[in-house]
């Protein structure tokens, strides 16, 4: 996990070190999140889904989706499903679940008790203002899949040799995302870092999001053991 934080340059180069939190602490109405994090101007949620590929059941992989390069920030970079809360979301956990369904066709039914969070600055596309954002991330441990062929979802993986996803795709392409793929921890660790103004390579990630995904790998493995916070069911 990255530990270097650039506080001396542009605020847009800053992000906090992702840290573990208890998911139950943020399982509260959205308007109460400001009480926990009074300095934060905007919240986002992310849902992290792990799986084992049928051909390599010992290798844990995470599902990432590729952002569209035209209208979105950090275009052509890879990330987990996620986004900003909507008014109808009961909690930030519901925000993560809704975004996951919209972007990956995976509806989380429960999440691990260990969650994570990270803050960073972001330039608003509409106003141009620089705002301090906080992402709250949740690890999916039980889910429904709403696509027609669930088996194909776990078959699209990253080819380091070809530098592109290989295998059948089953996730619908949207105006926000171009592709989806499953990545191992080593592949995520080797992802190039997004640099504003420079075309990203075939597999690039924003530093803060890369660090959060790497922490999620660690927390997912811990969730399989004992002495961890209880999971949280998502009631629709």
From TrEMBL:
Pfam families (UniProt xref): NUDIX
Report which superkingdom the organism of origin falls in.
Answer: Eukaryota
Nudix hydrolase domain: which residues? 40-207
InterPro entries recorded for this chain?
Answer: NUDIX_hydrolase-like_dom_sf (IPR015797), NUDIX_hydrolase_dom (IPR000086)
This chain belongs to the protein called Nudix hydrolase domain-containing protein
């Amino acid at each position: 996990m990255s530990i270097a934080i650039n506080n001396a340059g542009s605020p847009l180069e800053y992000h906090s070190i992702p840290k573990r939190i208890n998911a139950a602490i943020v399982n509260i109405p959205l308007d109460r999140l400001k009480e926990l994090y009074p300095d934060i101007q905007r919240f986002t949620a992310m849902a992290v889904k792990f799986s084992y590929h049928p051909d390599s059941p010992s290798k844990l992989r995470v599902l990432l989706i590729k952002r569209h390069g035209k209208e979105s920030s950090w275009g052509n970079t890879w990330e987990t499903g996620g986004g900003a809360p909507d008014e109808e979301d009961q909690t930030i956990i519901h925000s993560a679940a809704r975004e996951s369904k919209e972007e990956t066709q995976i509806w989380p039914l429960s999440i691990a008790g260990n969650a994570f969070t990270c803050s960073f600055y972001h330039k608003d596309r509409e106003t141009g203002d620089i705002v301090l954002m906080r992402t709250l991330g949740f690890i999916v441990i039980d889910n429904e899949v709403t696509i027609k062929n669930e088996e194909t979802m776990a078959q699209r993986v990253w080819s380091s040799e070809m530098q592109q996803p290989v295998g059948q795709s089953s996730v619908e392409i949207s105006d926000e995302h171009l592709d989806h793929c499953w990545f191992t921890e080593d592949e995520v660790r080797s992802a190039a870092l997004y640099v504003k103004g420079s075309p990203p390579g075939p597999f690039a990630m924003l530093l803060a999001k890369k660090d959060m995904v790497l922490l999620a790998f660690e927390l997912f493995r811990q969730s399989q053991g004992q002495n961890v916070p209880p999971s949280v069911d998502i009631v629709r």
